[in-house]
Design goal:
single chain; nine-stranded antiparallel beta sheet; 36% helix; 20% strand; GH3; ligase
Length: 643
């Protein structure tokens, strides 16, 4: 019996009954309810989930298949009813797929066709991903029940934190949460980012009181569509309630550091608001203004003076978080994957506070939690919760160079999910992954994704009971990321190709290039290192025209995908793209450096993204010109093409 001990304790009247096509009583077992204020019950439930991981995974797959047995998608692969009970038949007949394979089905739903194409339950919205396809955000199906699954997931984080940190019910969390733009599809379904979906849902807005999870930010400030007003208002509320703040954070490290930058730029204005008891006139959103005014309540000269003393007078901002919010126990932000680049900056501002990365999730599905939240950022591993989806894993191995990971395997049946030239390999089940091995995550969800390649590369670090724990290694094919943007090598090359059209008529040849994400300032920005050659010259370059080079920067930005351009224009979370021109022979020196560190001369290829500090220092030492984009790229919410 699935999660039997926790279920018996939490809901003794619930009985397991055989499957009925009309009813889904098993879901009460797969998605157990419990009081998040009861941390002991939460930890018992976590133990049951991880102990019975294999049984739960089998039950999850069986439930998904029985529910959706009459969908057009599954009927295209599974014909006989008894095939829906056979895990091996499912793996042999249903292909592992990429997003491009799912587009036609999701597009049809967006254009008004029934959800039964892929899901027996109604698709209630489409979740836009930070990943893109054809320059536009990917869209993932979601259902009303999926919001309940996310609520369950968030509630599971509470007992884990309480196990390691005492007294979290004695104060508040200053969590800076934001919504992003959304669109209405031709079907009437909304398409929006996963966090926007959750914050706008009844699950969030009508959430029951949880004494362990009280926010300083009123919902009205979180739901404010103007990101600048939202950020300022949430910071102001956090400052006014500084004596109650026990933890601070945001979802992504980049967003939290943007908040610190806003504090750095606007602390005088914030102090003026606190000193007068009135919010600035430019906060015009009615709900936001009213909510903040209630918290401001009355003038507070003493608090304004204290903040002014800490932020002003030329004092270093090192440890500013601990100084302004002295009761803070930790900073909760994602510090894995591309967000790891922000760890040194976070540590500078933190005053020694632990950096806590609690969860691993995406638009496709919420996956796992960090059950040792106070570990060092480099040791963060996530335990996948086996009732969230059905998980499979494609083995991957290190390339001959020994550095980056290369996708080496694909699905077991040669379906349409990968390159036909790739070696066909079988997937591995959740409980059968091996310690120290690398895998790409594949999910079958309750919302209509079947054997879908998420694109995340994970490494198995340990097991908790029978559930494996994974370290997030990187996103497959992504070379640059500052915030929620994910630029792959192909997208970078396309943008570069457009920029070359600006300089080639003038006689310039781009002989080599590489890139890196510069996060030394806030916001971070893309840096491209270019080695140029003049046609017919011996390597000497004439003086570079600043206007032309700035035009190259702008052209590249206009050619990057919608998520990048939104981050630049709407969110202001990425700074202007920069091109640094280097002297002739610089990339030969880069190759020499890489070979000296173990790369093979015969197999060496110029890396299109540099992360080594030594390599970046080498390239910077050869720079002869720096140029920035002077224009903000065009962006508007993406549109769904009608058939």
């Amino acid at each position: 019996m699935l999660c039997s001990r926790a279920i018996e304790n939490l809901n003794p009247k619930l009985e397991f009954v055989e499957h009925s096509p009309q009813k889904f009583p098993r879901m009460l077992l797969l998605l157990p309810d419990y009081d998040p204020n009861d941390c002991e019950a939460g930890m018992r439930l976590l133990e049951d989930l991880t102990t019975n991981a294999d049984q739960i995974q089998k039950q999850v797959l069986k439930e998904i298949l029985h529910r959706n047995s009459h969908t057009e998608y599954l009927r295209g692969f599974l014909n006989d009813d008894d095939e829906y009970d056979d895990e091996e038949v499912f793996k042999n007949k249903v292909p592992v797929v990429n997003y491009e394979d799912t587009i036609p089905y999701i597009q049809r739903i967006a254009n008004g066709e029934p959800s039964q194409i892929i899901s027996a339950q109604p698709i209630t919205e489409l979740l836009t991903s930070s990943g893109t396809s054809g320059g536009q955000p990917k869209m993932m199906p979601s259902t009303a029940e999926d919001l309940d699954r996310k609520t369950f997931f968030y509630n599971m984080l509470v007992p884990v934190m309480n196990k390691y940190v005492d007294g979290l019910d004695q104060g508040k969390g200053m969590y800076l949460l934001f919504i992003k733009p959304e669109i209405c599809t031709p079907s009437g379904l909304m398409a929006r980012p996963v966090l926007t979906s959750y914050y706008k849902s009844k699950n969030f807005r009508n959430r029951p009181f949880n004494r362990f999870n009280v926010y300083t930010s009123p919902d009205e400030t979180i739901l404010c569509p103007d990101s600048k007003q939202s950020m300022y208002s949430q910071l102001l509320c956090g400052l006014v309630q500084r004596d109650e703040v026990l933890r601070v954070g945001a979802v992504f490290s980049s967003a939290f550091l943007r908040a610190i930058k806003v504090l750095e730029d606007h602390w005088k204005e914030l102090c003026t608001n606190i000193r007068s008891g009135h919010v600035s006139d430019w906060i015009t959103d009615p709900g936001c203004r009213k909510a903040v005014s209630i918290i401001l309540n009355e003038p507070n000269q003493e608090l304004a003076d204290l903040i002014e003393q800490e932020c002003g007078g030329g004092k270093s901002w090192e440890g500013i978080i601990k100084r302004i919010w002295p009761r803070t126990k930790y900073i909760e932000v994602i510090v894995t994957g591309s967000m790891a680049q922000y760890i040194p900056t976070l540590e500078f501002y933190s005053g020694g506070l632990p950096l806590v990365s609690t969860m691993y999730a995406s638009s496709e599905c919420y996956f796992g939690i960090n059950i040792k939240p106070l570990c060092k950022p480099c040791d963060v591993s996530y335990t996948l919760l086996p009732n969230m989806a059905y998980f499979e894993f494609l083995p991957v191995k290190k390339n001959n160079g020994g550095g980056e990971l290369s996708q080496d395997q694909v699905h077991s049946n040669g379906g349409s999910g990968g390159d036909d030239k790739e070696e066909i390999m079988e997937t591995v089940d959740l409980v059968n992954v091996k310690l120290g091995h690398y895998y790409e995550l594949v999910v079958t969800t309750f919302t209509g994704l079947y054997r879908y390649r998420v694109g995340d590369i994970l490494m198995v670090t340990s097991f908790h009971n029978n559930a494996p724990q994974f370290r997030f290694v990187h996103r497959r094919n992504v070379v640059l990321s500052i915030d929620t943007d994910k630029t792959n090598e192909e997208d970078l090359l396309k943008a570069l190709t457009q920029a070359k059209l600006v300089i080639e008529p003038l006689g310039f040849l781009l002989t080599e290039y590489t890139s890196y994400a510069d996060t030394s300032s806030i916001p971070g920005h893309y840096v491209l290192f270019w080695e140029l050659k003049m046609k017919g010259s011996n390597g000497l370059l004439p003086e570079l025209d600043t206007f032309i080079m700035e035009q190259c920067c702008s052209t590249m930005e206009e050619s990057l995908d919608s998520v990048y351009r939104r981050c630049r224009k709407k969110d202001n979370s990425i700074g202007p793209l920069e091109i640094r021109v280097v002297t002739h022979g610089t990339f030969d020196a880069l190759m020499d450096l890489c070979v000296s560190q173990g790369s093979s001369v015969n197999q060496y290829k110029t890396p299109r993204c540099i992360k080594s500090e030594e390599a970046i220092n080498l390239l910077n030492s050869k720079v002869i010109g720096r140029f920035f984009s002077q224009k903000t790229p065009f962006w508007e919410p993406f549109r769904i093409e009608t058939s």
